[in-house]
Amino acid sequence: MTRRRLADRLFDRFSRMAIDWQNTRGRSFMTAHFRPRRAAEIGTWSNPAIARPRAAVVMQGPVHAEHDFTLETLRLYARHMPGAQLILSTWSDTSPAVLQPIRDLGVTVVLSEKPAYPGPFNVNMQITSAAAGVRRAVADGAEWVMKTRTDQRLLAPDVLPFLVALAETFPPAAGTGQRRRIIGAGFGSLRFAPYHLTDQTVFGTAEDMLAYWTPPLREPPERDDLRGSAQALFDGLAIGELCRHAAAESYLTSQFLLRMGRRLDWTLVDTWAAWRDHFCVADTCATDLYWVKGQMHSQREHAVAYHALTNRAEMGFRDWLLLHSGALRPADAARHEAVLLDRFNDPVPMG
Fold first, then answer.
1. What is the number of structural domains in the chain?
2. What percent of the chain stands above pLDDT 90?
3. Is 348 within the bounds of a domain?
């Protein structure tokens, strides 16, 4: 332990020196954000004055065992989300030794068989495990459900009452067929991609979430250009084609909208109208979200590019509120429709 603390102190000193150099001599301003690995090292707490919603947290996917990430996240949620049912929905081939300490926390464990065809970007895997967890939450009486991933952690306290307050403050448009807005709280809600709400961490009423996470599984594609790897699809297809035929986020969102009775035309104009009418966004900084898979690689706190406005730009709460308020209109997206012919990461020209 003493040796580890010394290593931490040395790293802190050298990282501060590197950041100081960048801020005084480099071309950018730089900050660093350190999050504890262990729940026991986090001393924040949920405010007992806030009423607790009847909610369930469905954590889906393979258990992330490195650094006990999934286990430690569930330990934190047990403290930060008092009264919420914690559900781990994972695969039947998971080692019982991995699952036992999770069960010992009082977490409900739901096991599923993997689908025969994983689907593009593993969407069928996600649907199978998410649907199993959400169905259990509904059966156990949850009124609200947050679906999240085994490799993501929301470190902020009072996340569930915050999301409920957001949903109740901004009801969906009249005639949408849903009870409350679906709220995207992960990375990947995109401004310039058709019907691309994040599929990582998503929140809504139990009824709406059941509709969202139970679309038909995708069938193997008939087109040759849709049979490649995820990277090949990303590199080879224009945004409009990628979203319509492969992207997991757009498939889930579009299927939900169809269930709600909305007719889709796969334009940005209709996408922005759907954002205005059906959805909302909770920025990752509001929930203090950390994503192992994404942020260990990118080493970035926010999905922001400064060199240009790119077609991977997120739909943040600021952007959504401008749409909701009418300051920005869905019709304003018409000037950007040509973006759908580009590949991801290209700059968006000023309209």
1. 1
2. 81
3. no
